[in-house]
Task: inverse folding
């Protein structure tokens, strides 16, 4: 079983994913922890009378990007996105595989649109070295760069799943299986 392409890893689940994807999830957890510390310190310091964290809203805003987007490849690999299974639960075999392939294609098209727009924004902010107004003058490009990176990985993961599900459909197997 190849953990990169095989999503039907019932015994391993997330632990069978590639080390790079687990690292991205770990980075997202660290960012979430830092975000929680920033918010806690800010709330406590405001309660004591004076906020000691400058640009706290901007820092939390920039930390939300990796918290939300870095694990998206793992969520995609585990097929754990939110889904409405009103009609699809009654489908079997090739029809379910065809629907999974259609979902991948729509996701790839949407992801490419997002990637292109984010890449243009990132390159513009890199060129101009724009920053957010505030005490710390936080640059815009790091958060936008993380966004571009995460969306690129998301598209890559969808392409891998598209290949796996296409191969399964051609073999006559079910296209989607949960870990």
Result:
């Amino acid at each position: 079983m190849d953990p990169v392409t095989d999503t039907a890893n019932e015994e391993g689940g997330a632990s069978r994913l590639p080390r790079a994807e687990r690292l991205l999830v770990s980075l997202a957890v660290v960012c979430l922890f830092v975000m929680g510390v920033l918010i806690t310190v800010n709330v406590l310091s405001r309660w004591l009378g004076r906020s000691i964290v400058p640009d706290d809203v901007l820092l939390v805003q920039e930390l939300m990007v990796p918290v939300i987007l870095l694990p998206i490849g793992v969520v995609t690999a585990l097929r754990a996105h939110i889904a409405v299974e009103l009609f699809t639960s009654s489908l079997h075999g090739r029809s379910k595989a065809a629907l999974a392939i259609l979902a991948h294609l729509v996701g790839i098209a949407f992801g490419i649109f997002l990637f292109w727009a984010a890449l243009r924004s990132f390159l513009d902010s890199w060129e101009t070295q724009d920053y957010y107004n505030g005490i710390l003058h936080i640059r815009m490009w790091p958060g936008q760069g993380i966004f571009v990176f995460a969306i690129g990985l998301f598209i890559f993961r969808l392409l891998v799943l598209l290949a796996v599900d296409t191969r399964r459909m051609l073999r006559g197997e079910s296209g989607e299986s949960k870990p």
Summary: Residues 1-11 have pLDDT under 50 and may be disordered. Residues 38 and 56 are 7 Å apart (CA to CA). The helical segments are 19-47, 56-69, 72-77, 93-128, 141-171.
